[in-house]
Amino acid sequence: MRFDERVAAALSWTHALIDLDALAGNIAALLACLPPGAGLMAVAKANAYGHGLVPCARAALEAGATHLAVARIEEGLLLRKSGITAPILVLGPSNSFLVRHAVANGIALAVGSSESVQAIAACLGDGLGPASLHLKIDSGMHRYGVQPDDAPGLARAIAQDSRLALEGLFTHFATADAADDQFLREQVRRFTAVRRELAHAGINPPLVHLANSPATLRRVPHWPDLRLPGEVSLVRTGVAMYGLSPSADVPVSREFQPVMTLKTRLARVFTIAPGEGVSYGLTYVASERVRCATLPLGYGDGLARRLSNRGWAVIHGASCPIRGRVSMDQTVVEIGDLDAAEGDEAIVIGDGRDGAMTASQAAALYGTINYEVVTAVPERVPRVYLRDGRPAAILDLIGFAGPDSEPARATADLSPNAAG
C-alpha cells in the first residue's frame, strides 16, 4: 500500500493522531525550566508512553532533547536500528542476555547493585566495551538502586574496572508530584550527600540527573537551598513531554498540549426499544426508545473496560455516553437526536477543548493515572503523525512510513559481532 492509502485507511477507522508540533512545543516549554547548562533526556519508554517510540524519539531530538531514556534494552536497540545515534540510557535492570548487544550499540545501562555490575562485567570481553554505566542511588523510593551507604564503594569498584565506565549518577523521586515537598527534599539531601562523597574521592561522573517531569516543572534543580544549581547536567522528562500533567498537584501550564488524540468512526447507527439492552451482560437497559451508535474500538484498542456505562465520546460536538460494557473491539454510545450516520467521526480521547474526554478525565473515571490511559493504546491502533496539521508519517502493523519511504522496518545488523 502507498503512504496515502495507508493514511486514508487509518483515518477511516480507529486511529490515534500524534501531533509532533505539540510534542516540539512541549519540549520547548520543558527546556525553559532547565538550569543553565543542563540538557533534556526525553523518556521514550513503553512505546513513548503509547505515542510511538521511534517517531517521538526523533521528534524530541529535533526539538532540542540531547539524550533518550528507555526501560528495556530492546527499546534502545530499536532506536539504534532506526538510525538514531543520540545517547540512550536503559533506566531499569538489564536483561543479561542482551547486555552485549547494548554495549556493542553504545547504549548506557543503569546499575543498582554490586550484583548487577558484576553481571554486566561478566558479559564483556573479546574487545567489547567498556560498558557505560549510570549508578542509580536509592534515595527513598526503594524500587531499584544502591543504598546511599553502599554507593561510594560500588562507584569505586566500577571506576577501577577497565571493562566499565561510570558515565552517570542518578536517582528517582517518589513524591515529586505531591503537594507536600518534605520527602522530595529528603531524597535530594540523600542524593547530594552521595554526590559530594564521590566528588571528595575524585569520582565525578559527567552526567548527573534526578529531576523527573514533576520535579522539572517545579524547577527543583533551581532550588537554591538544595544546593543543586551547577550540579545537574540532565533532567529526565516523560509524561509532560506528551502534554500530560504529572498529577493534579503538579499540572502542566497552558504552554503544554496533549500530543495524542484517539478517534474512530461510527460503524453502525441503530435504535433500541424500551426494555432492550446492549453489549455483554446487558448492563444497560433502555427505559425508552434510544438511538445508539457502535464504535469499532474497545479495550483491545486502549479504551478501558472500566469505562463501561461511565465514559463518553464526542460526535458532532455532542457528548455521547457509553452504554453497556466496553468489549474488546466494539463500544456502544447513545447519540440521541444527533444527525449522525455510519462513517461519522467520534473523538474518544482528546485535549478537552472539544468536549472529548481527556486522558486525565478518563483516568479519574476508573481510578488510574493519565500515563496508563495513553500507554494502553496498543500497536494495532495506527498512529498518524502530524506536522503543520497534515499527515507526515504513519506507524501501523505494516511498519513505519513517510510520504517518500517504503513500509519496511529498518534492518541494520545490531549483533555484537557486527559492531565496529
From TrEMBL:
It comes from the Bacteria. GO terms for cellular component: cytosol. One of its GO terms (molecular function) is alanine racemase activity. Gene3D superfamilies: Alanine racemase, Lyase, Ornithine Decarboxylase, Chain A, domain 1. This is Alanine racemase. GO terms for biological process: D-alanine biosynthetic process; peptidoglycan biosynthetic process. It comes from Nitrolancea hollandica Lb. The keyword Isomerase applies. Pathway: Amino-acid biosynthesis; D-alanine biosynthesis; D-alanine from L-alanine: step 1/1. The keyword Isomerase applies. Keywords: Isomerase, Pyridoxal phosphate. InterPro entries: Ala_racemase (IPR000821), Ala_racemase/Decarboxylase_C (IPR009006), Ala_racemase_C (IPR011079), Ala_racemase_N (IPR001608), Ala_racemase_pyridoxalP-BS (IPR020622), PLP-binding_barrel (IPR029066).
